[in-house]
Amino acid sequence: MFNNSPRLGSATDSAAAENQAENQGLPTIVLVHGAWADSSSWVPVINELLHAGFPVRAVANPLRGVEHDTAYLASYLAAVEGPVVLVGHSYGGAIITNVDTSAFDVRALVYVAAFIPVAGETVGQLAAQSSTPLPLVTVETPGGPEVHISPEGFREAFAADVDQRTAGVLGIVQRPANVRAVAEPITREAFRTVPAYVLVTTADRAIDPDLQGMMAHRTGAAVIEVEASHAVMVSHPSTVAGLILQAATSAVTVR
Asked: What structural domains and CATH numbers belong to the chain?
């Protein structure tokens, strides 16, 4: 699927990473995708994290609403033993911000082209500050309206620096988000108590780079910038993995 990435990590690779992590007390890296993506978007990054010897989990974010998705992530974390580094892309950033990190051994937060709301703020309020409207399609479902990006406009809006074939596949497997995901405010600000790292994508057409910068600034987090689209985990996996590994390595000494 991903022409610019190494092979998908095998079960042997994963087992080796788990054993190494157990021996060294390494944190588990938990990846949370956002709207209009799925867990497979992390594959190029997962390969690099496994190669570095860290255990990795990729959560299938339900995209049903802030409270629902936060509760789902919390239930997922309850099954992970030991320290954790949370990584959120796009809307996933709002979910890792909203989770009660005091209930788990969360050592660091990593935001990748992400929304980082403050308490009482919604993703929709932040998204409205972006200058470029997205080509969105709304579909009525029994669970309420759901939104996705039109297949024709997906590459330009989401993955402009990804080859056409791969971007087309990403558009096909994208998962729609319930409108509650952008309408429900968050209630917690995990970055106030947990070290945070932010990757800002300066060629992003889904979340305005200036908006990303504003959100990053108010967290007081360590920030790096990369000239990339919203699909930076596919187009620049080494950069994304590098920031995650920086956070994870620092987290080994955090108690």
From this structure: 11-251 (3.40.50.1820)
What the block records as the tokens of 32 is: 């949370």
| 131-178 tens-digit pLDDT | 788 999 999 999 999 999 999 999 999 999 999 999 999 999 999 999
Cα(99)–Cα(31) distance, integer angstroms: 14
* Residues with Cβ within 8 Å of residue 111, at least 6 apart in sequence: 87, 88, 93, 96, 196, 197, 198, 199, 216, 219, 221
**Cβ atoms of 55 and 46 closer than 8 Å:** no
Pairing of strands 146-149, 177-178: antiparallel
Predicted model pTM: 0.91
**Rounded (5°) CA angle 103-109-113:** 135
CA-wise closest residue to 93 among 232, 236, 255: 232
Contacts of 164 (CB under 8 A, 6+ apart): 155
Which stretch of DSSP H or E encloses residue 87?
strand 84-90
| Ramachandran bin of 174, using left for φ above 0, alpha for ψ from -120 to 50, beta for the remaining angles | beta
